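Re-run with default settings, no changes from the original entry. Doing this only to confirm the output is reproducible before filing.
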Amino acid sequence: MIIQTDICIIGAGPVGLFAVFEAGLLKMRCHLVDALPQIGGQLSEIYPKKPIYDIPGFPEILAHELVENLRKQIEPFTPSFTLGERVETLHRLEDNSFQLTTSDKTEINAKVVVIAGGLGCFEPRKPEIQNLEMFEGKGVNYIVKDPELFRDKRIMIAGGGDSALDWTIYLSNIAKEITLVHRNESFRGAPDSAEKVVELAKEGKINLLLSTNLNSLKGNGVLASVSVTDKNKTVHEIEVDNLIPLFGLSPKLGPLADWGLNIDKSAIEVNTKDYSTNIPGVYAIGDINTYDGKLKLILCGFHEGAIMMQSAFKHVYPEQKLSFKYTTVNGVNAF
């Protein structure tokens, strides 16, 4: 069976999901493909219970709640999905449409292809410390799927980015003890989050160790302690139940790298006029693309999807004139 659609969206994360809404307003059908077994991308797979603070209109929203809201938002446009499969090949057909084939040999024909694959195929960046793999799943966790698993536990978080800061703040109200270890004196995450972490340390609600490096792990079958070295070269043995290294993800484009796209440092170069790639009819939105001034934020991906769909319309309906309407006037059902 070959799936026929107007637009094939590779990646069912938040940006890919919102792109369905923008396509639906223009009466274009979408089929989404994702290697993960559920929609939501990183929000579902890596941090479903993580609070997000930069979605307009939501001072705070949990990642899984945002995914559910996006799912409800696109329901009127009845998108179809192929989940748990990775797109392997892309071929242009004689009529200038595309044929895509997945890892399970599912075939999809589409007039437009939108790559919204986030970071692509990804895996967590692991710290280079002794005995790390011995304790993976036995006290070492690279993601926080359910914060309740850490209730009343002694937690060490390592990292200086947004995830490390956000989880330190969030888990400070759940864990018995929180220690944040960062190898530098300053953080890479949002200044506001950094200020909150410093304030928590001043209040004695967390332990903050800056200019400190992880050394090794100890335990009898399960993690019991972490050895660290501070800026004075003093070694400390800290008793913990869980170590959560949050050093980001290592992105890999996978098969996309062989499609003839212009690639710069594992990201797809696009034209900011419409977020098109060097292949006509193929677009890239969200964290997977790159251009001068790029910000890797969900809200920026939403913007890119809205602009991109205006251009995609010309490929799907080349003989029609685009007449853009406002949902505030007509309502979604009017489209």
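Residues 197 and 203 are 10 Å apart (CA to CA). The longest helix spans residues 298-316.
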